[in-house]
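Pilot study result, target chain (278 residues):
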Amino acid sequence: MRNDPTRYQLIDFGDQQKLEMIGGMKFIRPDTSATGSRTRPKAWDDVDGRYVRDRKGKGSWNWNSVPPEPWTGQHAGLHWALRPNVHGHIGIFPEQQENWNWISDQISGDPIEVLNLFGYTGGSTLAAAAAGAKVCHLDASRSSVKCARENANSSDLGDAPIRWIIDDAMEFLQRELRREKRYQGIIIDPPSYGRGPGRQVWDIDRDMIKMLDLCRDLFTADGRFLLLTSHSPGYTPDVLARLVEDRCGFRCQRGEMQLEAEDGRRLSSGSWARWSRR
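Predicted structure:
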């Protein structure tokens, strides 16, 4: 399965770049965590594209072979609609797979209510729905929610009990509290900076504590789990865990999201803090 070109693969990394493949396309993206030397230098030849940043930090994709339309791939038992954007994303964060497995384990067939904030293209939502949960998927981006719904349909989860919400996360949480809505599981994967559909501004440094306070109040008395992840600089596993423990009172596990290259090396790709009642 490792050599299946439709599936996600981290082929190699080094010199602050990573070489990846999914959906038949091989491409290079920058990654400051990709230190050390490349182990498969010849594999970096004849790539289909690369994402580059100029001196001002503005990024763009340069394609030698234009991705097919639609461009689709497979990862973690799910089918993905792949859409490269100006931020260097392709529509999937494969380093979240361990967290998706953990989410599934917390649900284990129980139809609990789960809230997925900043749900992007639906990885955590689909993991929860496939495990039997009723999921509220929220993202401020209409195109991301549309892509998440396509991923649900192509992964045989089109009829799963998922509420698809396009809204500002903070305003939505406040409305849910006023409506006395409660959840047994909450998933939070905030960006460093973003805008809501009404141009509301999200800033992780300014808004994270308030968001955790709102999420704490949204838990049912028998709340099951909380997952907080981040790719933002400075938000290490210890920082995330301290935030959750301080604001929610939950003792957390903590760790790094990682991708495994073909030679077995692991690339650090973000942080997580997890609390479970189990």
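One observation from the pilot: The mean pLDDT is 96. A full batch analysis is planned for the follow-on phase.
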